Automatic annotation (TrEMBL), chain A:
Organism classification: Eukaryota, Viridiplantae, Streptophyta, Embryophyta, Tracheophyta
PANTHER family referenced in this protein's UniProt entry, alphabetically: MULTIFUNCTIONAL METHYLTRANSFERASE SUBUNIT TRM112-LIKE PROTEIN, UPF0315 PROTEIN-RELATED
Assembly description: Interacts with TRM9.
Pfam families xrefs: Trm112p
GO biological process: rRNA (guanine-N7)-methylation; tRNA methylation
Family affiliation: Belongs to the TRM112 family.
Name this polypeptide is given: Multifunctional methyltransferase subunit TRM112-like protein
Coiled coil: none
GO molecular function per UniProt: protein heterodimerization activity
Species per Swiss-Prot/TrEMBL record: Buddleja alternifolia
UniProtKB/TrEMBL annotation, chain B:
Residue segments, region Disordered: 210-291
Source organism per UniProt: Buddleja alternifolia
Similarity remark: Belongs to the class I-like SAM-binding methyltransferase superfamily. BUD23/WBSCR22 family.
Feature: compositional bias, Basic residues: 245-257
UniProt biased composition (Acidic residues): 221-235
This protein's record includes keyword Signal: no
Any Gene Ontology biological process: alkaloid metabolic process
Key words, A-Z: Cytoplasm, Methyltransferase, Nucleus, S-adenosyl-L-methionine, Transferase
InterPro entries: Bud23-like, Bud23_C, Methyltransf_11, SAM-dependent_MTases_sf
A Pfam family the protein falls into: Methyltransf_11
Highest rank taxon of the organism: Eukaryota
Protein name according to UniProt: 18S rRNA (Guanine-N(7))-methyltransferase
Amino acid sequence: MRLVTHNMMSSNIKGVANGFPLLIEAAQVVEKEVDFNADFLKNIFARIEWKALVEASKTMGYSELLDNVESSMLDSEEFLRKFHHALLEIHLEEGALVCPETGRKFPITKGIPNMLLHEDECTVFVLTGHDLYHSCGTPGVLKALSIAVY
Amino acid sequence: MASRPELQAPPEIFYNDDEARKYTSSSRIMDIQAKLSERAVELLALPDDDVPRLLLDIGCGSGLSGETLTENGHHWVGLDISPSMLDIAVEREVEGDLLLADMGQGLGFRPGVIDGAISISAVQWLCNADKSSHEPRMRLRAFFGSLYRCLARGARAVLQVYPENLAQRELILGFAMRAGFSGGVVVDYPHSTKMRKEYLVLTCGSPSLSSVTPNGKGEDGESCSDEDDSGDEENQSVSVSDRNRPRKKHKLNKKVKGRDWVLRKKEQMRRKGNAVPLDTKYTARKRKARF
């Protein structure tokens, strides 16, 4: 998993208000070369949470990123190269992601984080009568369903 | 017709090691998947400026659809519920990042960070309740709600689906609309049973000019395969030899019980000693239409 993905992910466990950023426990990190594309970096820069990226890259053993950045720095080739490397070339191969609020661990094997939640961690939506009505059409079915749900 | 995989087992069980390998080694499936994802990318209508985008592939499986995204130069994040399929994806060294996740539990992404999403033959799985805790409507709501949140304003999601029936299509579309999406269904080759493919083209945000649903392929009589049109032409050139054939011939073929039958029955009843009306010219005669 690359840090661009990590920077976009947040924990969606029930009741967690701010599941970002997920903490990284790195056991194995690999680097893979990716083609450099300045347009992509400029495009995505606004959506990156910089602080989280710096923290994450440090835990992965890459500490070349500056703590404070401005959008004007996007013109510097040197900065873009570092940004590119941190964002796309460092892969977290083995380890875990940890939810910052609940401490729940999501293990990573072969670079794939297991984000499956247990049943009691899923957000439960209360289905309204409106939902039920529109999903099944006829009032007869609606009646039967509302008995089953409520 | 082959049974739908949705009816056989939950996705993480159905796509086990064997099935995942079979799926990915079949050149026919690979071809279909590539075509579907190519069309999905077309429907995404990303700005034509050669800037790579960050896309989401929901139900990426072994990464067949993701490869199309890579070919188009985009970065992508794929998620799937089947570990076996993801293992194959790792083996095939796909470029995108993979997540083992259940779309019915909602997508764990920050708001507004994704440029677009595609999904090939996956969303209809949400309509099944595979565990006692599963409630399809709740899962659809969680999925579309979280998808809407994580997409940037004006971004599109193109979901290719195989709904089992009309009710299922309306269920899926209904929850998409209630999550806030605008858009609709694009049907390619609506007249062909085999080639018919449905795409939900959803736009994040209010309907505008840019969110006009594109037309499906093969809608206005465009030929969809070679076999189909050859048959049509032959039918058109059939000559009619007898122009004066009886107009309502088919009615004579019907098993209408005629006058003879009625008379026979009346005779039978008389022999039994029942009171039977006399036979007249009106017996078993057809009523006038204006009666």
